[in-house]
């Protein structure tokens, strides 16, 4: 019992800290851009530049992490350098300065979450720790930090960069609670040799470079892609929408706090939901809820926006938890960092670029409110298409077994 509690609290501390880092850095950036005269289209470009930089560097960090098996050290390294890079935003308020700062910052920041998830989900599974409760620490940490930071940044908006730098360094220190990296050997006791094809410990088959065990992962990644388009658009422009209504960072902090706490009951329910329902069915249901969340914003009143934020848990958290645990359970041995990185590249890379650029274009072309309506319709149509495709795939697989 003591060992279980010790492992649980260590993982809880790490996951709480990584989401606290996120709460300081990401939600207030777009409002900061708007306050400095950056247009909606430019905000969309900035929101897309970061994921593009992440797409270039995430695979390198993941391969370095898996091949060297120095996952904790790599995570700590990119956290410290990422925190230092966050200070580049203080060099000026011109669009070009923001572009350079975003590229450098996201080259490191974009890899933190997949590497953290790779380590934490694997350790939780091996130590029999409930990952849903561990993830809840991140949710609560995000909500508390963003509420207080939002109130503080109301009078000191540029201080978020120094706060972020300190929080990144603190997270790197907390990562010492994670298991030590192996010294020259992998967990099976064999010498760790980069590039050598090893047999999978669960299937006994050689991987030959493959990461996933089943082609079904395509549907999971597609759902993650569509969900993230909705989430990235919503996150990028709901703060702009709120500023246009005459509110400030304090209200933004309150709204994101509401969205974070909406994840708590979902996390309590996720283990039972995953045991009772098909994962793909749950993920498709989350897409429909995400469409509802997006369509509520253009009503233009705070009560509707609050309701939209409250749907964060039933939409994004179901998708996040379902996708992360699916990847954990369907990768070949020794490929978990690369598997989680592919998921994050789909979400934080391709989908975020698409959502941000589409949001910026649609907002400039039709207005911000109609853009929310168009994105919501796109998510509904995509959800229906993916749901039909999964049913057809399941029927074909059943026919092959018969």
Question: What's the short story on this structure?
Answer:
This protein is mostly helical. 78% of the residues lie in helices and 0% in strands.
Notes on the protein architecture:
- The chain is an all-alpha fold.
- The protein has a single domain (2-180, 210-401), classed as Growth Hormone, Chain: A (Up-down Bundle).
- Helices cover 78% and strands 0% of the residues.
- It is built from 15 helices and no strands.
- It has helices at 2-25, 29-35, 40-68, 71-86, 95-126, 131-153, 159-174, 217-244, 249-261, 263-276, 279-296, 302-310, 312-329, 336-366, 368-401.
- Helix 3 runs antiparallel to helix 14 and helix 14 packs antiparallel against helix 15.
- It is globular.
- Measured as a percent range, the helix fraction is over 70%
User: Largest sheet, described in full?
Assistant: none
Poorly predicted regions: 185-207
Derived structural class: mainly alpha
Which percent range describes the beta-strand content?
under 5%
Mean pLDDT: 80
CATH architecture: Up-down Bundle
> How many H/I helical runs?
15
End-to-end separation in angstroms reads: 46 Å
CATH topology: Growth Hormone, Chain: A
Order of helices and strands: HHHHHHHHHHHHHHH
Alpha-carbon Rg, integer: 21 Å
Q: What general outline do the C-alpha atoms trace?
A: globular
Count of distinct strands:
0
């Amino acid at each position: 019992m003591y060992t279980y509690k010790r492992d649980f609290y260590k993982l809880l501390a790490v996951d709480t800290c990584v989401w606290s880092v996120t709460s300081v850095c990401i939600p207030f950036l777009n409002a900061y851009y708007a306050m400095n005269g950056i247009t909606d289209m430019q905000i969309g470009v900035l929101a897309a530049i970061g994921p593009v930089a992440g797409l270039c560097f995430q695979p390198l960090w993941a391969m370095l992490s898996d091949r060297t098996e120095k996952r904790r050290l790599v995570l700590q390294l990119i956290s410290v350098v990422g925190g230092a890079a966050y200070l580049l935003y203080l060099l000026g308020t011109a669009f070009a300065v923001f572009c350079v700062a975003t590229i450098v910052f996201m080259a490191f920041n974009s890899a933190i979450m997949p590497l953290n998830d790779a380590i934490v989900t694997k350790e939780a599974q091996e130590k029999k720790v409930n990952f849903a409760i561990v993830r809840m620490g991140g949710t609560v940490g995000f909500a508390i930090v963003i509420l207080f930071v939002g109130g503080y940044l109301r009078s000191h908006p540029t201080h978020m960069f120094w706060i972020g730098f300190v929080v990144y360094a603190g997270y790197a220190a907390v990562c010492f609670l994670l298991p030590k990296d192996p010294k020259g050997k992998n967990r099976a006791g064999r010498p760790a040799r980069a590039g050598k094809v090893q047999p999978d410990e669960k299937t006994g088959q050689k991987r030959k470079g493959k990461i996933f065990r089943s082609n079904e992962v395509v549907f999971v990644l597609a759902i993650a892609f569509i969900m993230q388009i909705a989430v990235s658009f919503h996150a990028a422009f709901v703060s702009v929408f709120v500023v246009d209504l005459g509110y400030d960072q304090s209200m933004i902090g309150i709204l994101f706090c509401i969205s974070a706490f909406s994840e708590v009951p979902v996390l309590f329910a996720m283990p039972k939901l995953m045991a009772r329902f098909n994962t793909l069915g749950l993920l498709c249901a989350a897409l429909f809820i995400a469409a509802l969340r997006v369509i509520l914003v253009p009503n233009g009143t705070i009560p509707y926006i609050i309701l939209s934020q409250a749907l964060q848990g039933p939409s994004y958290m179901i998708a996040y938890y379902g996708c992360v645990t699916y990847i954990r359970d369907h990768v070949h041995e020794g490929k978990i960092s690369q598997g989680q990185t592919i998921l994050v590249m789909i979400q934080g890379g391709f989908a975020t670029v698409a959502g941000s650029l589409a949001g910026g274009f649609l907002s400039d072309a039709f207005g911000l409110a109609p853009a929310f309506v168009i994105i919501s319709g796109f998510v509904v149509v995509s959800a229906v298409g993916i749901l039909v495709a999964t049913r057809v795939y399941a029927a074909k697989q059943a026919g092959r077994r018969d």
